[in-house]
Design a protein that fits this description.
Shape: rod-shaped
Distance between the termini: 60 Å
Helix content: over 70%
Radius of gyration: 21 Å
Strand content: under 5%
Number of strands: 0
Structural class: mainly alpha
Number of domains: 1
Largest sheet: none
Length: 49
């Protein structure tokens, strides 16, 4: 890790917050994808019935 001097804490916190935000976006994307896939499967099943 590069020497960040007196800003090490702020930069580390910024990296942590960025990674947390990225993880949250990925989680929400996967959850929504599963929900839409389930709804599409249900709609196709009703159409075929």
């Amino acid at each position: 890790m590069p020497d960040l001097g007196e800003y090490a804490v702020e930069v580390t916190v910024a990296y942590g917050v960025s990674l947390l935000a990225l993880a949250l976006v990925c989680f929400l994307y996967i959850r929504r994808s599963r929900s839409v896939k389930r709804a599409l499967t249900d709609a196709e099943a009703r159409k075929d019935a």
